[in-house]
């Protein structure tokens, strides 16, 4: 039995017109093939269309790119990368972002608004990071951080609560003396952070799946 989906054929979303259902993600999020006013066709998540996060194939930005003069900067590429991993199912990062429902402030569809909100505190070499990993990209939930801080905060990293703070397995190994292989095994066995850290290696519970 085919999965039911909302039929939006012919509906317009900014410069885009939905022309055909294009299946769904592993999480069951519907995708639609859309035609842009310029003639290009792209596949877009239904939620990105209805939420106003994607309104063109990108051509609508061309005029603005020539006026803000920042299309060749790292800052602009950070903004473009954020949109890609939230909107494009073909991105190798989409499953960690758009595929998990992570979106961005609709005002940030325009680069100028993103720049106005986030240019303060930015310097070359810093990355855009979400403070709360369960929430999307917005001025209140984003900051500029170094690569080490961002790597430790990635949603696809395994994090462990220890002494009131979340730590990566590498940090836990440094703090406790446990090897990372032991820590990973205990994580995958479903152990709590407290049990991972407090159970001695020779304990009879060391290999129990609890």
Salient structural properties:
alpha+beta; 2 domains; 4-stranded antiparallel sheet; two-stranded antiparallel sheet; 8 strands
Q: Please estimate the helix content.
A: 25-40%
- The counted number of beta strands is 8
| Rg, Å, rounded | 21 Å
Strand fraction equals 15-25%
What summary fits the major beta sheet?
4 strands, antiparallel
Distance between the termini: 38 Å
The number of domains: 2
Along the chain, the helix and strand elements come as: EEEEHHHHEEHEEHHH
Report mean pLDDT, rounded to a whole number: 80
**Global geometry:** globular
Number of helices: 8
Furnish the topology, listing elements before pairings.
Blueprint lengths: L11 E2 L2 E9 L5 E7 L4 E5 H5 L11 H7 L5 H14 L23 H8 L8 E4 L11 E4 L1 H7 L6 E3 L2 E3 L1 H8 L3 H9 L4 H6 L12
Antiparallel strand pairs: 1-2, 2-3, 3-4, 5-6, 7-8
